[in-house]
Amino acid sequence: MPQPDIRERFDTVVKAPAELVIDVAKSFDMQSIWLIRTIFRLREIIMGSGGKPRKPQGTLAETRSLGWGTLIEEPTLIVCGARCQPWMENVKFTAIPADDFAEYNEPGQVKIAWTLEAEELEPEVTRFAHETRAVATDAAAKARFARYWRWARFGIIAIRLLLMPAIRREAERRWAADKRNGDVSG
Fold first, then answer.
1. Measuring CA to CA, how many Å separate 83 from each of 5, 73, 102, 136?
2. pLDDT of residue 181
3. Strands annotated E in 40-145
């Protein structure tokens, strides 16, 4: 998605190996953070949608259960994508096959891709990044998405700002525990 309508990227440095950081990011239950649960609840109230009961699960499992597809899955890179109409009260995410994602352009949709990236800066030091890109498939969807994004971006960005340090803390905690327990070489 070289020319998205929106692009949000956040990164942080984590004192843990890249593989551990990506594992924590994939398995972290973002709704274990009460402020993130509150943001999701506020969207439900604003949009008039009913919240569905959820079971605690990792970021990757939860997004897949919502309909997101995996476009790339490598040891330190995950890219997921879907199409949707985010301005709807009950958003339905529909996976787009990886081979079709770049060319997908069904009218009235927004195509979204997001990443979890862990780049080794040096042994036991990783740059963890999370990026989201979205592009509307036509002018009408672009206008609707722009109206939605004017207010929704505050919650979406807040979720990332809460999630990034939580993942960093958990990865560093796990790495320190692994080292204490002798579960790692080094």
1. 14, 19, 12, 9
2. 85
3. 69-74, 77-84, 110-122, 125-136
Domain extent at residue 103 = 6-177
| 157: pLDDT strictly greater than 90 | yes
Report if residue 65 sits inside a domain: yes
**Within a domain: 125:** yes
Tokens read off for 107: 């009218």
- Per-residue confidence band for 186, with pLDDT thresholds at 50, 70 and 90: very low
| 186 occurs within a structural domain | no
Inter-axis angle of helices 34-47 and 139-180, to 10 degrees?
160
Q: Which pTM was predicted?
A: 0.89
Residue 183 in any domain: the answer is no
Domain of residue 33, CATH code? 3.30.530
What gap in Å lies between CA 46 and CA 34, rounded to an integer? Answer: 18
Can you read off the two tokens belonging to residue 160? 């990332």
If one counts the domains in the chain, the total is: 1
Look up tokens 């803390």; give the residue.
169
Q: What is the pLDDT of residues 43-84, one digit of tens each?
A: 888 777 766 666 788 999 999 998 999 999 999 999 999 999
